[in-house]
Amino acid sequence: MKKLFTSALLICSLLIACNNNGQTTSSSSGNDENNGAGSDKEKKISKRDRSITKENSYNDIFLDSSNLENFITSNKVPDSLSRRLRSFYNARNYQFAWFSTGGLTEQALTFWNIHNYEASTGDTSFKNAALQKKMDGIIEDSNFTVNASDKSMVNTELLLTENFIRYTLGNYEKGYVKRKEMERFVPIKKEDPIILADSLLNKKHKDEKYFENVNNAYKLLKDELSRYVNVSKKGGWQPITGDAKQFRKGSSSPAILLLKKRLQISGYMAAGDTSKNYNDSLVQGIQQAQKSFGYKPDGILGSSLLKDLNVSVEKRIENILINMNRMRWMPQEPAGRLILVNIPEFVLHFFDGKNKVFDMNVVVGKEGHNTMMFTGKLSTVVFSPYWNVPPSIVKKEIEPSIAKDANYLETHNMERTPDGGIRQKPGGDNSLGKVKFLFPNSFNIYFHDTPAKSLFNQDKRAYSHGCIRLSDPQKMAEYLLKDNSAWTTDKIVEAMNSGNEMFVKVKDPVPVFITYYTAWVDENGLLNFRDDIYMRDAVVMQKMFAAK
């Protein structure tokens, strides 16, 4: 039985005929009211929760219970799995789990990452060519929306749930994921965050087997959730008023004491310093807070850090809850190497089994050119690469520049290709730098070098058109090719500067897992928060938490 990937992440988502208030009625009679009474089989099926309506549900579309029964019959689903399916949808009042009217949910994307990762590691039970084709098409379609009456969409929904149940049963030791807990991997309805947190923190199991015991990253966040809930119940913290510029070493003011209290509450500095002076202990506390929020630890309070510190404890509890849910979709512990990129952190982490080999700063996609969350396998290193300019960039940026300057292509070391496209030749000013790393995917995203090295000095690094730029691509190439004696450091440097494009296969392709965590606990035990650069948290908050 596989164990969950336990590294503390630094770095892991009814009926169609509804009445006016969103309540539904069933067109099938056999399995909607299993309430725990009767046979052992019935006891293993959750009661249908009719309190869930379109107004309070996490997702806004529902399916008919007859759809599930038809799916079970036509696919000859075994009794043990069919009971799980009925229980799963009873708990949701037949609300879709993986889709809303807006398209794929975050949980669908993250589970599909896990699905593809498991399939790529040789688990043939996850290989379903028809489902793969359907999901690839959905993910690639930026205008995709859902029609709940579409039989194809209903079938895709139910196939995903079947795969999810099989995955969960096959990848967790027996007892560590209870049936009802499995049913809540995908949120069901809007809840008060404090009540939700209390239910997670106070739930007791007779067998003393808990999910956090097999998912350390989840456990570490759960411990922080407990701490932050206690802070909330004690009144939280006061906003720090004034401009960040007033906080300078040697100064003294009531605001400085307020800042110290704020840092002490979060554990960034030890309790006991009640002076109003900007002293060395405050500098150290600010440095710790800067590490927590992803800034250079220079001990100088900036306006961005002040803004972060003024976010309420209740909002931070919501951040933690959202990311605990994301932690449920961590990849399994690999037998070999794994590359994990956390988009909001702007950092790539390279693991070899349980051991972290190195971290590397990266630049990710800017707003409107988001780097996608997905799984791939890094299989090829390309030295001195051409840059085949994407058609969208050619249309929006290159062609208008050519219209203004007839020598634009020559000036920028570019040329037209036989098929009418444009590419930039290898060289020092090539936008991909001196090397790129391919892991085939439908989003045309890859790792690459860049001549714009100064961007890596920024704390927040969302500047690309979607691909991921590496701060030390030579180091990446050396590690990927270290098992190939022909590729010494000197040979790699020579190829990077040759000006002749060269493709080199990686002997053992490395899984790449691109994630989106805005809260996690690092290997030093420090709770980290990052900006919600693609507004994913904002979307989930509206779906997951009841309005106050």
Question: What's the arrangement of secondary structure elements?
Answer:
Blueprint: H1 40-43, H2 65-74, H3 79-91, E1 99-100, E2 103-104, H4 106-120, H5 129-140, H6 151-171, H7 179-183, H8 193-202, H9 216-233, H10 254-265, H11 280-293, H12 303-309, H13 313-327, E3 337-342, E4 347-352, E5 355-365, E6 375-383, E7 387-388, H14 391-404, H15 408-411, E8 414-416, E9 422-424, E10 435-438, E11 447-448, E12 462-464, E13 468-470, H16 473-480, H17 489-496, E14 502-515, E15 519-521, E16 527-529, H18 536-544
Parallel strand pairs: 3-14, 5-12, 11-13
Antiparallel strand pairs: 1-2, 3-4, 4-5, 5-13, 6-10, 6-14, 7-9, 8-9, 10-11, 15-16
Helix pairs in contact: 8-9, 9-13
Briefly note the structural class of the backbone. alpha+beta
CATH homologous superfamily title of the domain at 335-518: L,D-transpeptidase catalytic domain-like
CATH architecture of the domain at 335-518: Beta Barrel
Number of β-strand runs: 16
Question: What overall geometry do the principal axes of the alpha carbons give?
Answer: globular
Please count the helical segments: 18
**What fraction of residues sit in β-strands?**
5-15%
CATH class descriptor of the domain at 335-518: Mainly Beta
Distance between the termini: 43 Å
Give the biggest beta sheet: 8 strands, mixed, barrel
Please state the CA-atom Rg, rounded to the nearest Å. 26 Å
Strand numbers in spatial order across the main sheet = 3-4-5-13-11-10-6-14
Helix content: 25-40%
CATH topology of the domain at 335-518, anyone? L,D-transpeptidase catalytic domain-like
